From TrEMBL:
UniProt similarity note: Belongs to the SAICAR synthetase family.
Gene Ontology CC terms, in alphabetical order: cytoplasm
Domain SAICAR synthetase/ADE2 N-terminal: 16-265
Name the record gives this protein: Phosphoribosylaminoimidazole-succinocarboxamide synthase
Amino acid sequence: MSDVVMETNFSDVKLLRRGKVRDVYEVDDHLLIVATDRVSAFDVVLPNGIPDKGKVLTQISIYWFNQMKDIIDNHIVATNVKDYPKILHKYEDILEGRSMFVKKASPMPVECIVRGYLSGSGWKEYKDKGMVCGIKLPKGLVESSRLDEPIFTPSTKAEEGHDINISFDEMKKIVGDELADRMKDVSLKVYKKGREIAEEKGIIIADTKMEFGIYENKLILIDELLTPDSSRFWSIKDYQPCKGQDSFDKQIVRDYLLTLDWNQTYPGPMLPDDIVAKTAARYREILEILTR
């Protein structure tokens, strides 16, 4: 296994922020986004990471951004370090494969979630209220049910803790009617196209979260797209409604942590080698399936 990149430190490049996974730098009027191998669970970044996780997330995002160009533009300027500004060339060993040089867009203050199947917080809310984010759904649905039509369920962006699901009307109050309508329309188109492509490869995209920004007065896709960290991927051949599904993501990590006597606050526990190896293999597997 390759070395784990938990943190980047480029002394001559301005660090804007460290997220749970990504380190973001400012380079002139552009951004450099570096996906590290950090892994978070229950909103806690764990002390050890998953080898090459950042590379997997970056390569999957690049694949999907390219697939969606006919629907909407995205923030990518370059993905090959030799095409980056010269100041970054000396960091090629770290950056190659796990970074994107991107437009500096103004991020929209809501996240756009599309659900094609009933899972996670959507399933929980449906059980309680028969609806998800104010959208009434048919009676009799079960966990992991495929929805007749995908639904758009935006959320707020929380700096800390969990994002909060909101209704489409609430989203309109935040970003305005015109932008809300455009973001909803694009989100559904991106999800449907992604779902069709993935299904041909034996994968269900149960739901996904995407982010938008404004660049030169135009709405574009930013951040990551249809990755295991922003989406639920299930195997078509293993899919069985009425229960939770095995996901191509860090579910192995979550399941392990739930066996521990840990209160889900900092500091998180170290992951054992076998859990790290299994999770790394799972990430690599979905990269190979989706991009082959």
